[in-house]
Amino acid sequence: MQIARYLHAAILISDLEKAEHFYGTVLGLPKVDRVLKFPGAWYEIGGCQVHLIQHDGLSHDLQNPEKLGRNAHLAFAVADLDAAKNQLIDYGYEFQMSASGRAALFTCDPDGNVIELQQA
What we know:
By secondary structure, this protein is of the alpha/beta class. The chain has two domains: about 10-55, 2,3-Dihydroxybiphenyl 1,2-Dioxygenase, domain 1 (Roll); about 70-120, 2,3-Dihydroxybiphenyl 1,2-Dioxygenase, domain 1. The protein contains two helices and eight strands, in the order βαββββαβββ. A four-stranded mixed beta sheet has the order 1-4-3-2, with helices on one face. The longest helix has 11 residues, at about 15-25. The N and C termini lie far apart (about 30 Å).
């Protein structure tokens, strides 16, 4: 087998409206058309996609809430980490700076999915 390229990551969300606000407005990911009929949304960045799939009754339990980066997570490179921090603060999202000391932070979407933002 030879993998040709990375296509997408699919994550479960419970409230499509809140998730679309987080991924589309707070993170600023561009939304793309999708042809599937079940509730969800697709976003694309750098040739890869994030697929949000609505799942009623969803419950996320973080394995390590003290160190968000030690949980399953999506990671995005950002042009300006300080601007990203300010954006999260403006929208009321908490975050943790990377414990490794590198220029990165971790936050959670409205359903508790962990998102890493790392200085490009």
